[in-house]
Amino acid sequence: MLFFTYTVVKQFGLHWTVALGAVFFSGVVFLVLTVTKIRSWIIEAVPPSLRSAIPVGIGLFIAFIGLINAGIVVKSDATLVAFGHILNPQTLLSVFGLILAAVLISRGVRGALIISILTTTSGINWAWGLSLTHWLNYYQAELKRYTG
C-alpha cells in the first residue's frame, strides 16, 4: 500500500486509477501464471537453499526497517549504521516492547505479540495522556474529512 501511494502515485505522478489498473493487470498475470502451472515451474527451478534463504532475507529487511523506525538503528557516516539514542522516549518504548515480546514468547504465552503490542501502545497513550476515545474521535474526524 505504501509503495502504491507514495511511489506510484506521488513520485511517478500517475493518476490513482491508472495505478489501480496496473495492480489489477498484475493480479491477472499472476492468476494466469498460477493456473497454467508456470508459477510452480519457476519455483521448482530455484535451488532449495535459495528458496529457504529468500524469506529469511525478507524478514531481516523488514526487521531492519522496524529497528530504524524505532530509533534503535540510526544512520552513521562512518559505518553506515549505528546504535541509536537509547534515552529517546520512542526508542525506550520500542526496546521495552521488544523485551516484553521476547519474555512472553520465551514463556510460551499465547498471543504474546498482541499482548506486547497492546501494552506498548497503552504505554504511548499513558505517556501522552491520550485515551481510546481520543483515537476514536481522531479516526472519525479523518474518515469524515476523506468521505466529505
Quantity of strands, as a count:
2
Number of domains: 2
Q: Roughly how much helix do the residues carry, as a percent range?
A: over 70%
**How is the biggest beta sheet arranged?**
2 strands, antiparallel
Q: Compute the number of helices.
A: 7
Distance between the amino and carboxyl termini? 23 Å
* Sequence of secondary-structure elements: HHHHEEHHH
Structural class: mainly alpha
**Biggest sheet: strands side by side, in what order?**
1-2
The stretches of 5 or more residues where confidence is low (pLDDT under 50) are none
Rg measurement, Å:
21 Å
pLDDT average, as an integer? 85
What would you note in describing this structure?
- The chain has two domains: 1-45; 85-148, no CATH class.
- It starts with a helix and ends with a helix.
- The protein is mainly alpha-helical and 148 residues long.
- It has helices spanning 2-11, 16-35, 38-45, 48-70, 89-106, 112-128, 132-147, and strands at residues 73-76, 80-83.
- The longest helix is centred in the middle third of the chain and has 23 residues, at 48-70.
- It contains seven helices and two strands; from the N terminus they run H-H-H-H-E-E-H-H-H.
- A two-stranded antiparallel sheet has the order 1-2.
- 76% of the residues lie in helices and 5% in strands.
- Helix 5 (89-106) runs antiparallel to helix 6.
